[in-house]
Design goal:
Layout: E1 3-4, H1 5-8, E2 14-23, E3 26-29, E4 31-32, E5 46-50, E6 53-62, E7 68-72, E8 84-89, H2 91-110, E9 114-119, E10 124-130, H3 137-149, E11 154-160, H4 161-165, E12 184-190, E13 194-197, E14 212-219, E15 225-231
Parallel strand pairs: 1-4
Antiparallel strand pairs: 2-3, 2-8, 3-7, 5-6, 5-8, 6-7, 9-10, 10-15, 11-12, 12-13, 14-15
Helix pairs in contact: 2-3
Length: about 230
Amino acid sequence: MTEELFREDSYLRECDATVTAVVDNAVSLDRTIFYPLGGGQPGDTGALSWDDGQARVVDTRYGDGGAILHVLEEGAAAPAEGTVVNCTLDWDRRYRHMRMHTAMHLLGSVLQYGVTGGNISAEKSRLDFDMEDTVDKEAVGEALARLVVEDHAVSCRWITEEELDAQPELVRTMSVQPPRGKGSVRLLEIEGVDLQPCGGTHLKSTGEVGAVRIGKVEKKGRRNRRVNIHLDD
Ligand SMILES: [Zn+2]
């Protein structure tokens, strides 16, 4: 099982770790700053370097038993088990994911409908809402911009599964239930705006989202509106 340093501090750009296994071109480590694909957020990319080598990490995914696999570029020589490696993130890409991800929470708080799907990338992101109404793009855009300017604090805390069961209204996403079986669930709180289970990487305050623009609103069925957002900078 890989210790998930990004859960407690999403701003870590670098760490040292020890290789615990190598399978094909994927390296698992005892701890990592690399976020693995999940919850609509892409796996991180970056680099591993060690005494006599280095390799690009082109994707990060969960393996078996809670191990996090750092997928090396094709043809790269992998470090041997037991090697201490230095991990560095492609920070610009990850930071855009954090801005997008946090903006998604804001969008979900502006449009109070069930969320049936979503996807984040550095270029554009989308949320699918269980709604029949038309989306007033201008009003939604203004509400988002206001939440950014208000600079709400963002924080995480853990609750037990029993506490979550007692507050089912915390789970707004209809398609994605929080992962169970670990005994506790991670809650993401945007002060005064949003509170829901989430395991992704977020900003520390909404002001860092910066300029965000509502893109296309697509009708994906009678009760499904897909809202796209872009970062303007
Ligand atoms: Zn989140």
